[in-house]
Amino acid sequence: MKAILLLLVLLPSFVMAEIHKEVQICEESGKVCFFWWPKLPKINGWHQDTGHSYHYKMNTQAPDNHTFANAKAVIYAKAEYRDESSSEKTLDEFISFSQNQFINGAPSILQVTKTGESVSKGKHKFISYSFFPKGEGNWEQVSYAEDQDADRNRYFMIFVLSSRSKDGFDKNIGAYNDFIAQYQ
Description:
Blueprint: H1 2-10, E1 19-25, E2 32-38, E3 46-48, H2 50-56, E4 59-63, E5 73-82, H3 91-105, E6 109-119, E7 125-133, E8 139-148, E9 154-163, H4 166-182
Antiparallel strand pairs: 1-2, 3-4, 4-5, 5-9, 6-7, 7-8, 8-9
């Protein structure tokens, strides 16, 4: 009886990821495409740009009255499926791999700085880094976490704020932090 009571007390504090999972035939290639992305909380002043979410296969958010394509700053979130065959076994390995890919693809970068750690409403630990250009380029905040869905599928989570200017970055970092804080 004590074990059942303990389980009932602990269950509400353990939240599983809510991952949008969909499979379709892609129009461009005619091949099967997987659409997996974290479901994000509603944040005042922001909306999901569904068309761009399907195009980029991630949850794309834009400020109200803008699209992901024309906004000066955007937020997006990805869920990278993780299984036993994944070459990156730990979050630290995934962060290193992800950052190396990004830096190699963006030669105008940058200054990469660890900006901190935070815990979301769903008890996920996010590790955050800023990626600032040396001159022209995007100002970005990238946060990484691990999660598991109700089917016990495991994911590396990536949340990104990307802005075309330092001013746009500064004006939208609060909304970005809200997405992370409210994530379950």
